[in-house]
Amino acid sequence: RRFPSRRDALDLIAAALLGNGEAKIRFAQVCGAVMAKGVEDTTFYRASRLVALQEVGGAPGRFGVSAAEFHLLQEERSMLWPRAMTTLSTHDTKRGEDVRARIIELTEDPSEFSELVNRVSAILPAPDGATGFFLFQNLLGIWPADGVITESLRTRFHDYAQKAVREASVKTTWVDPNERFESALADWIDAMFDGPATSMITEFVASLHRGAVQISLGRKMLQLVGAGIPDTYQGAEFFEDSLVDPDNRRFVDYTARSQALDQLEDWDWSEVSQPGYAHLEEHFNLAKIAVVRHAHAVRQEYPACFVGGDHQAVFAQGRAEAHIVGIARGTDRQHLSIIGLAVRRPLILEETGGWFDTTVTLPAGRWRDRLTGRVYTGKVPAEQIFADLPTALLVLQPETEI
User: Fold this and answer.
1) For residue 402, is pLDDT > 60?
2) In the predicted model, what is the mean pLDDT of the chain?
């Protein structure tokens, strides 16, 4: 009714499908490709409400789920699809997992972000408002925490911006590129890197990054101990600042990762720990690969607790209880052996004064944090569990070790 000119095409398709022949099979085969090009490779480059949500297989209309719904979904997956792959980054994701974590942190203080957008736009208006807002969020996702802009970063983002606007196909396209618009956009990006707004962007990112590293580590922990078979994309054992392909297919320094694993053998987080996790500025790569290494080791040691095992929610108690999300795994609800804990909304937690009286009550027995070596029993203050790192991997110690 709204588009009469499309009626003939629809009638043709309907008739072909009703014929129940080869056309029906071909139609089904092409639907996925059409959806991918139409949604993931076009619409996701046009929309800009919160670009971290515009991911392959994602639902940008949803800003997130409650802890209760998260656990219901995890429990469903553990029962129905225990061998399905889970991941935070792939060859096809539009942004690396740590870039998305940085962008997600914008939701902790949207008014401050809005103010930054207004100030930057007043100084450096983009050639197109929607395009500028889209690219600005991605730029914040990869902006160096120390503010040092390298030529490599500049080139990578220019290449990304060109791909993004051509995929969006609003102002320019692959087939018919608008060189004037693309040139203006490139000049705008250079002005971001070396212009009057550069210092205010760096200042804003410093706070954003502080929360993002905590979110990155916590999400990695929950992925690795959660339901399903976890996959870690090449290079994502360290901080991942990649954007869409081919940026996420750059050389991976496996030697550096191997050396980091060796360094972990004698590493003590309590010796470098600083308030507000300031030590993660220098040691984030080591922290992330520690999460990957120890979580995989635990999965190997306790296979029955994961594939075919039970998922149980872990909740905190106290004033800041909403800032903790936890997963317990075991062979059944009465025999839990692994608990993964992560911090939620870290910047709000910081602004509201910290953990106060918040505690986590552990099942009977002695629980050792594989990341720090600390041992806990009973009701444990959150400030103790998260004293060194914003995530924890607790494993029940065998009675012979008690």
Assistant:
1) no
2) 95
Contact indicator for 139, 192 with CB cutoff of 8 Å = yes
Q: What would the pLDDT profile of 363-384 be if each residue is shown by its tens digit?
A: 999 999 999 999 999 999 999 9
pLDDT in tens, 332-360: 888 999 999 999 999 999 999 999 999 99
DSSP 3-state assignment of 141? helix
Residue 327: which of 222, 228, 217, 229 has the closest Cα?
222
d(CA 322, CA 342): 11
Structure tokens at 15: 């008739």
DSSP string, 228-288: SEEE--TTTTS----BSTTGGGS---HHHHHHHHHHHTT--HHHH--GGGTTHHHHHHHHH
The type of residue at 217 is: L
Instruction: Specify the 3-state DSSP secondary structure of 92.
Output: coil
Helix (H, G, I), strand (E, B) or coil at 375: strand
3-state helix, strand, coil in the chain (%, to 5): 55, 10, 35
Q: Take residue 349 and report the two structure tokens written for it.
A: 């937690």
The burial class, CB within 10 Å (0-12 / 13-18 / 19+), for 98 is buried
